Amino acid sequence: MASREEPPTSLADCHGRSHAGWSLISCMRIAIAGGHGQIALLLERMLVDAGHEALGIVRNPAHVRDVEATGAKALVADLEHWSDDDLALELRGYDAVVFAAGAGARSGGERKFTVDRDAAFLLADAAERMGIDRYVMISAQGADAYDRVAAVLPARDDNSVFQIYLRAKAEADASIRARGFRWTIVRPGTLTDRPGQGLVAVGDSLPHGSIPRADVAAVVMHSLLDGTAVGRQFDLTSGSAPIADALDAITIR
Question: Distances from the Cα of 70 to the Cαs of 43, 55, 82, 228, 247, in angstroms?
Answer without folding.
Answer: 9, 10, 25, 25, 25
